[in-house]
């Protein structure tokens, strides 16, 4: 029996035997610490080497601070330039508004000047007229809007004429409508007119808006319907 056991141990089917060396625990921890330290040293060397390859200086923090300072300075300059631009824009807007107001005032003064010239020409006719009798000294017609005409009429009595005049006046409009001759009498017929030396009347006449006005005629008649004075105004 013993012989068989000895042969089984020496044969191929004999059980495997593992030989392990036994190290104490402190020595094992020392080996692990050395391995970790070596790995950390390699990692730190790789990091520094990578920084040198990438062109990063060790004074990166100082350069970053300088860049931040430069960015702050540029922002201040930008804010100052923006403030100057805003001020210039406000001044430009105010100047444009002032110019617009001045333009409106100039146009208003020009309009007033034209009205004053027209009024002056109208009132100059108040000067004594040569001759005797009733006269239409002035007639002015100003289109207000399509279909409306404002008129002013000045009638004077001079010379040997004495007493009050009681009569009527009327206006006759002339022009073209759709290319054809067109005439129009004042709506409502002749209107009463009374004066001793002079009188001024004015009013508004409505007419078809498509009419092209060319003439305005004023006629003054006495109580019997006889024409005592007339005046023809040609419109431009």
Question: How would you sum up this structure, described in words?
Answer:
With about 240 residues, the protein is an alpha+beta fold. It has a domain at about 135-235: Immunoglobulin-like (Sandwich). It has 3 helices and 8 strands; from the N terminus they run H-H-H-E-E-E-E-E-E-E-E. Strands 3, 4, 5, 7 and 8 form a 5-stranded antiparallel sheet that branches. Strands 1-2-6 form a 3-stranded antiparallel sheet, with no helix packed on it. The longest helix is centred in the middle third of the chain and has 65 residues, at about 60-125. The radius of gyration is 58 Å and the shape is rod-shaped.
List keywords for this structure.
about 240 residues, 3-stranded antiparallel beta sheet, 3 helices, 8 strands, Immunoglobulin-like
Blueprint of the fold:
Elements: H1 2-10, H2 25-54, H3 60-124, E1 133-145, E2 148-158, E3 165-177, E4 180-185, E5 191-195, E6 198-206, E7 212-221, E8 227-234
Antiparallel strand pairs: 1-2, 2-6, 3-4, 3-5, 3-7, 7-8
Q: Regions with pLDDT < 50 over 5+ consecutive residues?
A: none
Number of strands: 8
Whole-Å distance between the termini? Answer: 155 Å
| Class based on secondary structure composition and strand pairing | alpha+beta
CATH topology of the domain at 133-234: Immunoglobulin-like
What's the main sheet like? 5 strands, antiparallel
Order of helices and strands: HHHEEEEEEEE
Assign a percent range to the helix content.
40-55%
Count of separate DSSP helical elements: 3
Q: Determine and state the CATH class of the domain at 133-234.
A: Mainly Beta
Provide the gyration radius in Å: 58 Å
Inertia-based shape: rod-shaped
Q: Mean pLDDT across all residues, rounded?
A: 78
Named CATH architecture of the domain at 133-234: Sandwich
Percent of residues in beta strands: 25-35%
Task: Say which CATH homologous superfamily of the domain at 133-234 is assigned.
Answer: Immunoglobulins
């Amino acid at each position: 029996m013993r012989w068989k056991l000895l042969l089984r141990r020496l044969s191929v089917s004999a059980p495997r035997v593992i030989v392990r060396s036994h190290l104490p625990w402190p020595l094992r921890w020392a080996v692990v610490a050395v391995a970790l330290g070596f790995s950390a040293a390699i990692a730190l060397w790789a990091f520094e080497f990578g920084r040198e390859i990438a062109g990063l200086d060790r004074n990166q923090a100082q350069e970053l601070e300088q860049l931040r300072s430069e960015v702050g300075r540029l922002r201040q300059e930008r804010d100052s330039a923006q403030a100057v631009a805003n001020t210039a824009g406000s001044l430009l807007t105010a100047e444009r508004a002032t110019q617009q107001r001045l333009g409106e005032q100039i146009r208003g003064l020009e309009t007033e000047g034209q009205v004053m010239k027209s009024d002056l020409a109208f009132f100059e006719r108040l000067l004594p007229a040569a001759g005797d009798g009733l006269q239409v000294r002035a007639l002015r017609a100003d289109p207000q809007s399509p279909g409306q005409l404002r008129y002013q009429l000045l009638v004077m009595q001079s010379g040997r004429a004495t007493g009050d005049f009681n009569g009527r006046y009327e206006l006759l409009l002339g022009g073209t409508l759709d290319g054809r001759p067109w005439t129009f009498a004042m709506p409502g017929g002749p209107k009463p007119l009374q004066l001793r030396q002079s009188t001024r009347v004015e009013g508004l006449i409505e007419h078809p808006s498509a009419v092209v006005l060319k003439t305005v005629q004023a006629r003054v008649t006495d109580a019997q319907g006889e024409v005592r004075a007339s005046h023809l105004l040609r419109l431009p």
